[in-house]
Specification:
The chain is about 40% helix and about 15% strand. It is α/β, with parallel strands linked by helices.
Length: about 260
C-alpha cells in the first residue's frame, strides 16, 4: 500500500559535530522557509540525540519532521546510556531509524534485536525507518530475496496497520563512489512493494544517493510501483543546496503522477 506523497529523509550519522549540526539544522529551516523550496515532497531529518530539542524548536509549525537514528527496545529500565522510543516520542519525534547496516555490523544487532526495536517503535507511536539491503553486489533477484527475508524478520511483531518506511540501502553502495544502478534499484523496489502490498508503506532508496538520481529512477521504472517514493540521504545532504535539488526532483515526479 503506497502513500501518495514523495518523501526525503536525511540521517546525519556522526559526521558533524554539535556546532556543525546546529548550523545544518538552521540551514534546513531556512530552506523550508523559502517559498517552494521543498517542491511538494515531505522531509524528515535524523540528527544526533543532543540535537533533538533544537530540531523540535526549529521545526515547530513547519511540515518538517524529525527523529532519531537509534533507540533501545525497552521503554524503561536499568539500561545505562540508552534512550527509549517512548522518550523520543515525548521529544516530539516522528521517525526512528532501525536496522542500519552499520548497526548490524559494528554493534552486533541481530534480526531479533531489530524486530524488538521495530515493535517498540510501534508501541511508542513512532514510524520506523527500517533499513534493509544485501551485503554484496549481485543480481537484483538475489537482492530482493535477501531484503524480503530481512523484512519478514523485522516485521514479525509489527502491526500491519502501522505506517512504515523501508529504506533500501545495498550495503555495498553505502559510502561508495556511486549509487546502485537505476535498473537494480527499481527492480528491488518493485519486489519490496509487492511483498508489503497490505501495509501502509513508503520505500526510499539510500546508498550514495545524490541529486540527479531520482529522475534517472523515474525514467527507468517501467511501472509506478517500481519507483521509490523518495531518497534517504547521507553526506550529500550536508550541502543544503543538494538537499533542495533532491526535494524538487522527488516532489516534481510524485506531484506529476500522484505518487508511486
Amino acid at each position: 500500500m503506497a502513500i501518495d506523497t514523495g518523501l526525503v529523509g536525511v540521517s546525519l550519522k556522526l559526521h558533524l559535530g554539535y556546532a556543525e549540526s546546529r548550523d545544518w539544522l538552521h540551514r534546513v529551516r531556512a530552506l523550508t522557509d523559502a517559498a517552494g523550496e521543498t517542491g511538494g515532497a515531505e522531509l524528515f531529518v535524523l540528527p544526533a540525540f543532543p540535537l533533538l530539542p533544537l530540531a523540535a524548536e526549529l521545526f515547530a509549525g513547519t511540515p518538517v519532521r524529525y527523529g532519531a537514528q537509534n533507540a533501545h527496545s525497552a521503554q524503561r529500565g536499568a539500561y545505562t546510556g540508552e534512550v527509549s522510543p517512548a522518550m523520543l516520542a515525548e521529544l516530539g519525534c516522528h521517525y526512528l531509524e532501525i536496522g542500519h547496516a552499520e548497526r548490524r555490523a559494528l554493534f552486533g544487532e541481530t534480526d531479533a534485536v531489530i524486530a524488538a526495536k521495530t515493535r517498540a517503535a510501534a508501541e511508542a507511536g513512532l514510524t520506523p525507518v527500517l533499513c534493509v539491503g544485501e551485503e554484496r553486489p549481485g543480481p537484483a533477484a538475489a537482492a530482493a530475496d535477501r531484503v524480503r527475508d530481512q523484512l519478514d524478520a523485522a516485521l514479525a511483531e509489527f502491526p500491519a496497520h502501522r505506517p512504515l518506511v523501508v529504506a533500501y540501502e545495498p550495503v555495498w553502495a553505502i559510502g561508495a563512489a556511486a549509487a546502485a544502478s537505476p535498473s537494480h534499484i527499481t527492480a528491488v523496489t518493485g519486489a519490496v512493494r509487492a511483498h508489503l502490498t497490505d501495509r501502509p508503506t513508503r520505500i526510499l532508496y539510500g546508498g550514495s544517493a545524490a541529486p540527479g538520481l531520482y529522475p534517472h529512477l523515474a525514467k527507468t521504472a517501467d511501472h509506478a510501483a517500481h519507483l521509490p517514493d523518495g531518497l534517504f540521504l547521507g553526506r550529500s545532504a550536508h550541502d543544503t543546496t543538494h538537499l533542495a535539488t533532491v526535494l524538487q526532483e522527488v516532489g516534481a515526479r510524485c506531484g506529476a503522477d500522484g505518487g508511486s
